[in-house]
Amino acid sequence: MIHDLPVISLEIGSKKYKLYVAKSYKQKKQGLSGVSHLAHDEGMLFPYDDEKPRTFQFRDTLLPLAVYFIGANGKVLQKSISKPRQKSPIHCDKPCKWVIEILAKV
């Protein structure tokens, strides 16, 4: 469950978010799949040891998410929006160090 994960606070734009940190492979694979509720200021951070293009799946994700792919310099390389139970993956061709998912405004 996501509430068992470590949490960090991060400001995105002018808003402060509580991000659950998915550190292990298993936590990253699970991500926000099956989560039916997120507060407007909650999300998930996926940190990686390396920088490389990333692909994320949303087949079992129940919420619309804003997905930010972030480079080692901390700059957003790509922002995408996923739909609930989206069949097609979202891919970022640029090398990413972190990925953040927060509730999308729809």
- Based on CA atoms alone, the radius of gyration comes out at 13 Å
CATH topology: Jelly Rolls
Helix content: under 10%
The residue-averaged pLDDT reads: 95
The tally of helices reads 1
Q: pLDDT under 50 segments (min length 5)?
A: none
Strands, total number: 6
Overall morphology: globular
**What kind of sheet is the major sheet?**
6 strands, mixed
The SSE string, one letter per element, is EEHEEEE
Question: Strands of the largest sheet, in order across it?
Answer: 1-2-3-6-4-5
Output the CATH class name.
Answer: Mainly Beta
> Which CATH architecture would you pick?
Sandwich
Report, as a whole number of angstroms, the end-to-end distance: 25 Å
Q: Please tell me the total number of domains.
A: 1
CATH superfamily: Protein of unknown function DUF192
**Strand content range:** over 45%
What's the SSE blueprint?
Blueprint lengths: L6 E6 L2 E7 L3 H6 L11 E17 L6 E6 L5 E7 L3 E18 L3
Parallel strand pairs: 2-3
Antiparallel strand pairs: 1-2, 3-6, 4-5, 4-6
Could you explain the architecture of this structure?
The chain is built from 1 helix and 6 strands, in the order ββαββββ. By secondary structure, it is mainly beta. The protein has a single domain, classed as Sandwich (Jelly Rolls). It has a 6-stranded mixed beta sheet with strand order 1-2-3-6-4-5, with no helix packed on it. It is globular. The model has no long low-confidence stretch (mean pLDDT 95).
